[in-house]
Design a protein that fits this description.
Blueprint: E1 3-7, H1 16-29, E2 34-38, H2 44-48, H3 59-64, H4 70-73, E3 75-78, E4 81-84, H5 93-96, H6 106-116, E5 127-131, H7 138-145, E6 149-155, H8 158-177, E7 183-190, H9 197-213, E8 224-225, H10 234-238, H11 246-249, H12 254-274, H13 286-292
Parallel strand pairs: 1-5, 1-6, 2-4, 2-5, 6-7, 7-8
Antiparallel strand pairs: 3-4
Helix pairs in contact: 1-12
Bound molecules: adenosine-5'-triphosphate and magnesium ion.
Adenosine-5'-triphosphate (ATP) is lined by residues 12-18, 40, 42, 44, 134, 190-191, 230, 232-234, 236-237, 255.
């Protein structure tokens, strides 16, 4: 079973695609066989990797035509990294599938079929990342029905924080109706500006919010804010115009190092659950111990590394998160 992760945030421009592409590139560079699925009609992840849809089509065709197989439309982008590319036609899928009773499960069915009948000699994927569009429609629902984990890329700003409760409620609803195995694993802070107190306060508020949820039955009970926060770095914005990942374009820039470290964390967490190299990925925190004791029920939590200089420390500073009545742990 691969580690399946949807990068989801209904807010636009928060770093979903940048995170999906560079984490997929990061874990594949660490030797993990990886599939990146572009579910956004903007096709930004596809462009970012500089790939074109296959002759037989894109993820649009795969979702529309159930006779197609994943192998027909995936493209090998890099060593260990395959992509299900998107195209603008994807925008019409909502209408085209409106009468289909399996419209939210088309992608998960295709992934299951592929895993059940792997072509000869092909190894299963270790990681599947799904780049969701900034909306909650049939595309995002297909993404959420195909994964176990949701990562929320967001920027450390007060208004972004306000949307977190809504996102959590969305995941809860999808878990109740479509995918009972869905969990929120964490938040990835994108374009982090360590020089502002405000950014650090927002991160501290998120930390406090997740800490309060420990032990609850909510799908975010084991979630956390991943470290490091990805620093604001123009190289990350430049890389897509060259069709390159940050590893290829500027691996030693601050944002590149942050994604590299996050990719290592994801791999360590997964190896820990798979029983690989436990001495490398030994959990050291209460959170990690609690989470890894129930691997079948919740996504893993790795030992948080000491934050680099200027990174959020995880110590709550001041409460700026949504008012109590809007928090997802409170009754509606
Ligand atoms: N750490 C960063 N530093 C600087 N720029 C960044 C960083 N992360 C993302 N960006 C830039 O911010 C913009 C939005 O990022 P991205 O496309 O990843 O967001 P998104 O959430 O996928 O957007 P959409 O909702 O439109 O799909 C892009 O131009 C991207 O290059
Ligand atoms: Mg995007």
């Amino acid at each position: 079973m691969p580690r399946t992760i949807a990068l989801m945030n209904q807010k636009g421009g928060v770093g979903k695609t940048t995170t999906a592409v560079n984490l997929a590139a990061g874990v594949s560079a660490l030797g993990k066989r990886t599939l990146l699925i572009d579910l956004d009609p903007q096709a930004h992840a596809t462009l970012h990797l500089g790939v074109e849809p296959a002759e037989r089509g894109s993820v649009y065709d795969l979702l529309l035509d159930t006779s197609l197989k994943l192998g027909d439309v995936r493209v090998n982008a890099r060593e260990n990294l395959d992509v299900l590319p998107a195209e603008t036609d994807l925008a019409g899928l909502e209408n085209e599938l409106s009468a289909a009773s399996d419209r939210t499960r088309r992608l998960s069915n295709a992934l299951d079929q592929h895993a059940a009948a792997l072509p000869a000699g092909e190894k299963p994927y270790d990681f599947v990342f799904i780049d969701c569009p900034p909306s909650l429609g049939v595309l995002t629902l297909n993404g959420l029905s195909s994964v176990r984990e949701v990562f929320i890329p967001m920027q450390a700003q007060f208004l972004a924080l306000q949307g977190v409760s809504k996102l959590m409620e969305t995941v809860k609803l999808v878990r109740a109706t479509i995918n009972p195995r869905l969990f929120v694993t964490g938040v990835i802070i994108c374009a982090f500006d360590a020089s502002t107190t405000h950014s650090k306060e927002v991160v501290a508020d998120l930390d406090a919010f997740f800490e309060q949820s420990r032990g609850s039955s909510e799908p975010w009970a084991n979630a956390r804010v991943y470290r490091p926060a990805v620093r604001r770095n123009v190289k990350l914005a430049e890389a897509p115009s060259f069709g390159k990942t940050i590893i290829e374009y500027a691996p030693w820039c601050p944002g590149g190092l942050d994604y590299k470290q996050l990719a290592q964390t994801l791999v360590s967490e997964w190896d820990l659950l798979q029983g690989v190299k436990p001495e490398v990925a030994k959990p050291t925190t209460k959170t990690a111990a609690k989470t890894t004791s129930k691997p079948a029920a919740a996504p893993p939590a790795a030992p948080p590394a000491a934050p680099p200089a200027g990174q959020p420390t995880g110590q709550p500073v001041v409460t700026v998160i949504a008012p109590a009545e809007a928090r997802p742990t409170e009754p509606a």
